[in-house]
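Hey team,

Filing this mostly as a record. A colleague (T.K.) asked me to run one chain through the structure pipeline before their review meeting, and I want the input and output archived in the tracker in case anyone asks later how it was produced. No errors, nothing strange. Just documentation.

Input sequence:
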Amino acid sequence: MKLAVLALLAPLALSAAPAPEGQMLDVHMGGRMVVQGKAIRFGWPGVYVEGRFRGTEVSAHVETQGDWLRVSVDGKPFQTLVTSGPAVVKVARLRPGIHSIRIDKLTESQSGSSRFLGFFTHGTPLAPPVRAQRIEFIGDSHSVGYGNTSPTRDCDEKKVHDTTDTSQAFGPVLARRLGADYRIIAYSGYGVVRNYAGGKPGENLPFLYPRAIPGEPAPARADGWRPGIIVINLGTNDFSTKLHAGEAWADDAALRADYRERYIAFVRARQAAQPRARILLMGAENFYPDVAAVAEATGVKAVKVPTLEMTGCNWHPSLKDHRVMADLLAAALRTPAR
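Output structure:
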């Protein structure tokens, strides 16, 4: 790439954005999204959009609402959008030939959503990439990649937001190794039956799972998503803090029994919805026996997560930890399914 030119709009009303020029590219979408005409809304982490074209220039039109979006060209990072509002990224003076463009949602947005409005070129639009394999990752902050690029554990809310890069979490790392598409349905602080410190009782990850946008009650529409692998990593928030007065469980034994029962029901629901998918359940040492019991009851595979460095924000997995977890899953997938 000889030279690239970037143009960003100030956060004005969408009507102030210039009209797109050129032909719109067909796109390949990864993650759970809501299609609205030619626009795409998204709120879950790890969403990405890809396109291909023949020519020397392309532009990307988006509207961000607090999300950080990275634009890559030909597999190399080009620009990360960090300002809310409509934006147009223009890439020009590329070498003549075939090029790719991609947008990755890096940050977690537990409320609100951003929009992708299209890739446009004066060159020739080409068919987007196609991948045969699909993996779904269901989890909490570990699956999101919460604060994984932070050089320190000491983080406030802004630093957590700014140092989260879901594209470098263990799920996308594994998917790239396997040449697979991925979808991430994960929400920091949530568990199977209990959230971190007992917050928002009754509103857990299985409760949010059907939603199209995590902060909105509307359910996702059927979109033909058929993953061959489903990886679930839930339980950290159920057990990381002690029970306190007023919670639904009399003691730890009651919490663990409820966790197992509800987790079994959630796994069986995934099996009914995706009967051909191979399912792996991840669990750290402090709740791995519960995960193993759920795996035994549902006929899936349990994967024990070793002790990690946890040098990311607020004692969360680092980039090295995420690579360790990706290695662990890759090894588990090489063994025969149960």
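Quick notes for T.K.: Residues 180 and 260 are 30 Å apart (CA to CA). The radius of gyration is 21 Å.
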